[in-house]
Design brief:
The chain has about 800 residues and is of the alpha+beta class. Among the domains are: about 130 residues, Collagenase (Catalytic Domain) (3-Layer(aba) Sandwich), CATH 3.40.390.10; about 180 residues, no CATH class. About 15% of the residues lie in helices and about 35% in strands. It has 13 helices and 52 strands. A 7-stranded mixed beta sheet has the order 7-6-13-12-11-10-8, covered by helices on one side. The chain has a 5-stranded mixed beta sheet with strand order 2-1-3-5-4, with helices on both faces.
């Protein structure tokens, strides 16, 4: 894009090679007469703009069939056709092509290219209602002009400065291409409004006398504008802002000449434009985005004031049917007047010690006084900055060049604790005797602080500025009673002084496993509890339990599933502690604990008889290991149980809580319906150390006895167990049972075998021992209780010398002697 202005020496008739082109894939009737008429209309417009120095005429008319297609991008289509025609640029020549398609790519109504401002190419679709104005617009490109644009700002700003990288200082602002519909080089329309004075000046049009150039304005001046579409000399004004060095053009748009159809309503008045490369930029009274393609508010009206971003003011004094009066007041004048007015009303400043100096950021000015200064900018007006801690703090941030920008208020005192504050473009500085003066910069942290009540909140006054560079690009600001922390992921959150904050800082604050806070402190929980959420957990506090960390993980999840503090565990009473056996962890709570291991997951262990019994086994280090379930109730007789890696603990009111450890005894118990079986609930733990390495466990209705030789056997309460008890259990002659009690014998009898014999019971005979030996062997040979002897009715007895023994039966007696052996009496 050419950005060098053109000379008035540019003069001549541009010879047009006019070609109607049939595309390869679409054919149409292309009116050569309409095409010629469009060239003639274009010439008339540019002759008027150039004071008859530039014109266009058709030198040749041709028809042509091309290999180009309608689906090509229009630059590619133009290149194809120009190459086929063998056209090359030369001064004061142009190639104009009308193709057999009603539209061009990207919805373009036409396109033009320039070669040094006197030669170029134009491609147009089929002639239509916009053809004349569009072709005139495209010849503007041939003559070296680009588009007429508008400034569009979400803030509605009238003007805006640029950053060093070329971006707008107001991030809501952008360029709306074609946004100036009061200029031929703007959006397409049937009318052909006069090009703006900035493009006129850039293109070297007219006589050179149409625009009065004031240069860099240093004094207030008033000027008269006449219709820009008219013919008078000096009908527009051009001036350079004394601070920014930017150039502005003032022109009056009235409904005369080429502006007859467009300079109406809100577009009738003073138009303010700037050069934008080889294009232009209109600065409207309201830069908010307008709907559609055409704005009805381009012009400034009488009584309105335009202020450059550097502070120079353009006052629209009056507008008539033929002229307008404007006053230009440069920044130095505007700023100096405002500073003087404020100084006279602010006696605390004392006498001036310097003159007014300008050239600060964004065209600002200042003047020094005995007790401070007055600082002015176009955006903030004049504000006093009194010597003292607030001004010192502002200076430390870089004054108007720092993040706070210019002051927007005076120093205001009388707030809490005899504090003071002063507001700035991007925040404020707060002061109290206890905290000193500290900046509160606009942003998420300041917003959260003000939402909480600022200095009247629980945080009090800031004690530092905003500090960044934390983990994950986080920031914080300290206050008398806490701080506010911010990260991109969590936003700004309060961390108030108190037990929760103390616990958070002790854990490592944002560098801890908890990360940044995700909420402020929330109270009103049961037992006067409070909590604060963090990225990876929470801290929960009550007067009784103190502040405890609850980091995200299986333990916190299990607590959450139980209802948090409203559940059976209540509040945590300590931190999560790891390093237990097999890589386990636990956290204590008011009413129990949660234990976790990689193998079992997180399980609740509620205070009560089951947990007490587990404690008696040495918790996870004991034979049961870690719990694998919660406490489950609803068993028979109101019982409960909790499962563990190596067994379970069962509880009932009658039996208490007793462990049942994984092994043969537990297997047999479960195979016999556990608490629902004939034994009921356990009444003791498993006890070992019996004779021959045996073990047993007692139950409500009996016991289970185990030895390596016999395995686990039931010994239910009843006459058989009583009889065994009378023999001293496993230490007696029968030793360990080798079966359970077996019933269903004749006459409703039952028996149980032992290592040393058996016990046989019937309703009529009771429980009788049958020890291994010759008498039992003979009884067996008769068929036990089904034989002629029936059931034993008494114990086996021997004489003192053990030479004779007998045992009675319902059908007789068996006698044994050393000489005869066993025989039936």
């Amino acid at each position: 894009m050419n950005t060098e202005a053109y000379s008035l020496a540019r003069s001549g008739d541009i010879k047009v090679r006019l070609v109607t082109v049939q595309l390869a894939n679409v054919k149409a009737n292309i009116s050569m007469d309409s095409a010629v008429a469009a060239v003639d209309g274009t010439s008339a417009y540019w002759k008027r703009m150039s004071n008859n120095r530039l014109s266009m005429s058709v030198a040749s008319k041709e028809t042509f069939t091309s290999k180009a297609t309608s689906w090509q991008r229009y630059p590619d289509m133009m290149n194809t056709i120009a190459n086929e025609l063998g056209w090359a640029p030369s001064p004061y020549t142009a190639l104009v092509v009308f193709v057999s398609s009603p539209t061009l790519s990207d919805g373009a109504y036409g396109a033009g290219w320039s070669y040094n401002g006197t030669s170029g190419r134009v491609i147009m679709p089929l002639p239509a209602s916009l053809t004349r104005s569009v072709l005139t617009h495209e010849f503007g490109h041939v003559l070296g002009l680009m588009h007429a644009n508008s400034l569009e700002c979400g803030s509605g700003a009238q003007d805006v400065s640029s950053n060093a990288n070329g971006s707008f200082a107001d991030a809501t602002c952008s360029i709306r291409e074609y946004g100036d519909s009061m200029d031929l080089m703007g959006v397409s329309q049937t009318t052909q409004p006069t090009i703006s004075s900035s493009l006129w000046d850039f293109g070297g049009f007219g006589t050179g006398r149409e625009i009065r150039n004031l240069g860099k304005v240093s004094n207030v001046g008033s000027y008269t504008l006449t219709a820009w579409a008219g013919t008078a000399d000096n009908r527009a004004v051009k001036f350079t802002d004394p601070v920014s060095g930017e150039v502005y053009y003032l022109e009056l748009r009235l409904p005369v000449g080429f502006d007859a159809g467009t300079a109406v309503n809100g577009n009738r008045g003073v138009k303010i434009v700037q050069q934008f490369g080889s294009g232009s930029l209109v600065l409207m009274p309201d830069s908010h985005r307008f709907a559609g393609y055409y704005s009805a508010r381009h012009a400034w009206q009488a009584g309105q004031t335009f202020t450059t971003h550097a502070g120079t003011r353009v006052i629209i004094n009056w507008i008539s049917d033929s002229a307008a009066g404007v006053t230009i007041e440069p920044t130095t004048g505007v700023g100096g007047t405002a500073i003087a007015e404020l100084a006279s009303a602010t006696t605390q400043l004392g006498a001036s010690t310097s003159g007014v100096s300008c050239g600060l950021r964004n065209g600002g000015c200042f003047q020094l006084f005995g007790n401070g200064a007055v600082i002015w900018s176009a955006g903030t007006g004049a504000q006093a900055s009194l010597y003292g801690p607030v001004r010192d703090a502002w200076a430390r941030t870089g004054s108007e060049n720092g993040p706070l920008g210019y002051p927007t208020s005076a120093l205001i005192c009388g707030i809490r604790d005899k504090g003071c504050f002063q507001t700035y473009e991007n925040g404020e500085i707060l002061y109290s005797a206890a905290s000193g003066a500290q900046p509160s910069t606009a942003g998420a942290i300041r917003t959260a602080y003000r939402k909480a009540g600022a200095e009247n909140s629980a945080l009090g006054y800031p004690t530092s500025g905003e500090v960044c560079g934390l983990r994950n690009s986080g920031c914080y600001q300290s206050y008398q009673r806490g701080e506010i922390l911010w990260s991109q992921a969590t936003g700004a959150q309060l961390s108030e002084a108190g037990p929760i904050r103390t616990a958070y800082r002790k854990a490592g604050a944002e560098n801890s496993a908890l990360g940044f806070p995700t909420s402020g402190k929330i109270c009103g929980l049961p037992q006067t509890g409070c909590y604060q959420g963090f990225q990876a957990g929470a801290i929960i506090q009550t007067p009784a339990t103190g502040a405890q960390l609850s980091p995200n993980g299986p333990i916190r999840t299990a607590w959450a599933n139980s209802g948090f503090e409203g559940g059976p565990l209540g509040y945590p009473t300590g931190e999560t502690t790891c390093g237990l056996v097999n890589g386990g962890c636990y956290q204590p709570y008011q009413k129990g604990a949660i234990l976790w291991s990689p193998a079992t997951g997180a399980q609740l262990s509620l205070n009560g008889p089951i947990r007490t019994a587990w404690a008696g086994t040495r918790y996870e280090t004991g034979p049961l290991g870690y719990p694998t379930s919660a406490v489950i109730c609803g068993l028979s007789n109101g019982g409960c149980y909790q499962a563990y890696q190596h067994g379970e603990i069962l509880y009932s009111t009658a039996s208490g809580a007793k462990p049942t450890t994984t092994g043969a005894i537990r297997t047999l118990y479960r195979n016999n319906a556990a608490e629902n079986g004939l034994l009921g609930y356990p009444t003791s733990a498993e006890v070992c150390g019996l004779v021959n390495s045996g073990c047993y466990q007692n139950y409500q209705k009996g016991a289970i006895i185990w030895s390596p030789a016999t395995g686990a056997q039931l010994s239910p309460n009843g006459p058989i167990r009583n009889a065994w008890s009378a023999t001293r259990y496993e230490t007696g002659p029968l030793a360990y049972p080798t079966t359970g009690v077996v019933c269903g014998l004749v006459k409703s009898g039952c028996y149980q075998n032992y290592q040393g014999g058996a016990i046989i019971w019937s309703p009529t005979t009771g429980a009788r021992l049958s020890p291994n030996g010759p008498i039992r062997t003979l009884w067996q040979q008769t068929g036990f209780e089904t034989g002629r002897l029936g059931y034993p009715t008494g114990a086996q007895t021997c004489n003192t010398t053990k030479t004779t023994c007998t045992q009675p039966f319902t059908g007789g007696k068996i006698t044994w002697t050393t000489t005869r052996g066993a025989y039936i009496n």
